[in-house]
Amino acid sequence: MADSDIPSTPQTLLPDAIHQAVRPGTALLRLETTHSRQGVLDGAWWPRTRDVEQEVPALVSVLTEHLGPITRVGLDATAWDEIPTRLIIDDRVVHLDSFPVGDDTVLITRGDKDHFALMVVPPDTDPDAARTAMARAVRADNITSATELLVAVLPPPTTERGGET
After folding, report:
1. What tens digit of pLDDT does each residue of 26-81 get?
2. pTM for the complete prediction?
3. How far apart are CA 126 and CA 134, in angstroms?
4. Neighbouring residues of 12: CB distance < 8 A, sequence distance ≥ 6
5. Rounded CA gap, 38 and 75, in Å?
């Protein structure tokens, strides 16, 4: 059978039930552990706050269940409150690297050289916009950077602060 005879399957986003289940702090991930990963991102993460010591341990614990021991986490220094150099998570030392890159990602290292890039959705993101960005990030054929995905779905900032008008 020739390739042209094989019916193509349209690319779709995740089922609506998954979108509805995603809440702040949920790790929605596409985690392929082979070297053939093709997308720019391996998943998405929506933390509740910018507090590293509160948010990163839960993420690492969840990832460890799927990937095995996590050795390093690379964070954008401009996007987080104080970043310690290491945390003890589940009785293991996890080293934290911080770089002022501003790229809306967190880099996870398993072992010596196996890296996973996760888009970080800002904590105060509208739930619908967050679900849309996360669904796009986990598509296997995604070639869009985290920053571009977030800009594409986030509403423009408002100039007014405070209560509803």
Report:
1. 555 555 444 555 667 888 888 888 999 999 998 999 888 878 899 999 999 988 98
2. 0.72
3. 12
4. none
5. 22
